Amino acid sequence: MKKVCIILLITHLAMQATALSEKSFERFFEIGVSPSVNMSSNYFKLKDFFKKDVVFDLRKIADEMPRNGLKTAVLFSAPDYFVNLNLKNGWKFGLMKLGIEGDMRFNFSKQLFDVLGYGNADMGETIEEVGSISADVFYYFNTSASFKVKKFNISVSPSLFVPVAHFETNDMGGSLTNKTDGSLSVNLLIDGTLYSCVDTKPIFDGQIPEFTVAGLVKNMGFDLGSSVSYPIFDTLQVGGYMRLPIVPGKLRHAASIKASMSYTVESIAGVLINDTEAKFEPALSDIEYGTPTFKISRPFRMGAEAVYCPFNNWLTLSGLFGFGVKYPYTKTPKGYVEYKFGVVASVYNALSVGLSTAYLSQVFIHEAELKINARVLEIDVAVSAQSPNFKYSFTGAGLGARIGVAVGF
After folding, report:
1. Which segments of 179-338 does DSSP mark as H helices, in order?
2. In angstroms, how far is CA 128 from the centroid of its own chain?
3. What secondary structure letter does DSSP report for 56?
4. Do residues 14 and 315 make contact, with C-beta atoms less than 8 angstroms apart?
5. CB distance 221 to 245 below 8 Å
6. What are the phi and psi torsion angles at 128 (to 5°)?
7. Distance CA 105, CA 85 (A)
8. 287 closest CA partner among 191, 352, 371
9. Gap between the Cα atoms of 136 and 163, Å rounded
10. For residue 86, how far is the Cα from the chain centroid?
11. Which candidate, 79, 169, 317, 330, has a CA 20 to 30 Å from the CA of 121?
12. How far, in Å, CA of 36 to CA of 130, rounded?
């Protein structure tokens, strides 16, 4: 009985010490940055491009290429400046968070790789669907406030954003000619539209475009993020989250671009053994400029989440499940599900190690995180393996990195 009492007493004191230490490590005021970059594909591995002699087996690639073709994703957020204020009464304010975020996708059809690997039945065969390219870049500024109403933890985050650019291909086709002598000729045609916040004609002419702050403010959009959680038990909290686009941003300049790329080689076999030089000739046709009003919002997100802390904050298990809609309020919305499951082990909130697996922004992500908190200085480093394809997310087909640094008192 004495042993049981001693164990309970030690456990109680440890929990009290943990609670006190967590408060002592929480900064009243802090500033910092938290940039991140992510690159991945659903087939090629990064190590394939970092060899002394880069050799690709085109037939092997054609056989192994997923049915939906090659998909690549590049996502970034930088520098992600932030300024936070944490009051003793439990109120927390994100006074400022700003940066630039981007989402670029490059997709190429399986038919293209089948033709490259096995040739075509007819010389000069037309490849009708080569793929598609899309890109979105936003400048964002948001604030946030977190507080308690009875037992409910509530967070509200209004955000202003300025769309910087949106690019989409209207058509992407080509032709391929492989002759009996082993020569190969590939022609790719791209028809796309670039919407931007400034006139891009000076950029294509090698000049600096003109813009005004008032013009950017005129194009500004607004969305509202929020979350709420409720403690079912002392160790379990459940809640929900949402980001609701309210006012779309506007892009008032457009450039219709038609580009072509020609790739010619006398011997494809010679290229594979670095014995023959290939000729690559890109060309950009006349660009048509316009001033439409293109409206765009950041993705809508909504879902449920839960946090379980069986040993106070020594161990935290978390889960999230929801869905998102890219290009909401348009004729071409793209819906997707999202989830994230993670575990974090923490020692007095001074040293934390976390592992998580997720499907966010249509990319499978497996992340490892290390956080060191010395109160006046906190460093948060995370690396991840990722891919648009679940199978290839374990093979090194993509890599993500994030580093956060915060200083305060």
Report:
1. 201-204, 213-218, 268-272
2. 30
3. -
4. no
5. yes
6. -70, -40
7. 37
8. 191
9. 8
10. 28
11. 169
12. 30
> Is the dihedral angle over the CA atoms 197, 202, 208, 210 positive or is it negative?
negative
Q: Which of 58, 34, 36, 142 is nearest to 363 (CA)?
A: 36
Please list, residue by residue across 251-284, b when 16 or more beta carbons sit within 10 angstroms of its beta carbon and e when fewer do: bbbbbebbeeeebebeebeebeeeeeeeeeeeee
324-348 exposure pattern, b = at least 16 Cβ within 10 A, e = fewer: bbbbbeeeeeeeeebebebebebeb
pLDDT at 17: 40
pLDDT band at 99 (very low <50, low <70, confident <90, very high): very high
Segment 61-88 shows an average pLDDT of: 93
Q: What percent of the chain has pLDDT over 70?
A: 86
Cα–Cα distance, 299 to 312 (Å, whole number): 34
| Alpha carbon distance 386, 37 (integer Å) | 12
* Residue whose structure tokens are 């190690």: 353
> What is the distance between the alpha carbons of residues 388 and 396, in angstroms, rounded to a whole number?
12
Give kind and range of the element (H or E) at residue 265.
strand 253-265
Q: Tokens 């909504």, residue?
A: 302
Q: Residue 20: enclosing H or E segment and its boundaries? A: helix 2-25
Which of the four pLDDT bands, split at 50, 70 and 90, describes residue 181? low
- pLDDT of 4-22, one tens digit each? 444 444 444 344 444 444 4
Taking every pair of Cα atoms in the chain, the longest distance, rounded to a whole number of angstroms, is 90
- The amino acid that residue 384 corresponds to is S
| Predicted pLDDT of residue 18 | 43
pLDDT tens digits along 292-307:
999 999 999 999 999 9
DSSP 292: -
In whole angstroms, what separates CA 38 from the centre of its chain?
A: 6
Average of pLDDT values for 175-192? 75
Average pLDDT over the chain, rounded to whole?
87
Q: What is the pLDDT of residue 171?
A: 86
Residue 74 pairs in a beta bridge with 39, 104
Q: List, as one string, the DSSP characters of 136-161.
A: EEEEEEEEEEEEEETTEEEEEEEEEE
